[in-house]
Every structure is written in structure tokens, then in C-alpha cells.
Recover the amino acids of this structure.
């Protein structure tokens, strides 16, 4: 069974927020930080560590 990556990330994120109940500001900070890092010069560097 092949599941798209975006669907798997969305499901894990939904379940994590539902069960762990992190503060809203932490969720917003992680999303904004990830977006900013992905579109900066650090994006390829971080990507090389992940892969």
C-alpha cells in the first residue's frame, strides 16, 4: 500500500496534536520555523542530515 507522504505527515500531526495537546504557540512556532528554514540557505544543509 502506497500512502502519499503529505497524507502520512498530516495524519501523524493530527494524532499528535489530538493526543499530546501541545500549546498552540508551540505548534505555530514549529510550523513557521520549518517553513523559514526550508526557504533559507539552511534548507539544503538540514535536508542532507534528514536523508
Amino acid at each position: 500500500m502506497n500512502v502519499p507522504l503529505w497524507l502520512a505527515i498530516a495524519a501523524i500531526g493530527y494524532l499528535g496534536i489530538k493526543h499530546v495537546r501541545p500549546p498552540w504557540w508551540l505548534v505555530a512556532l514549529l510550523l513557521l520555523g520549518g517553513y523559514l528554514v526550508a526557504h533559507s540557505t539552511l534548507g539544503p544543509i538540514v535536508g542532507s542530515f534528514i536523508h
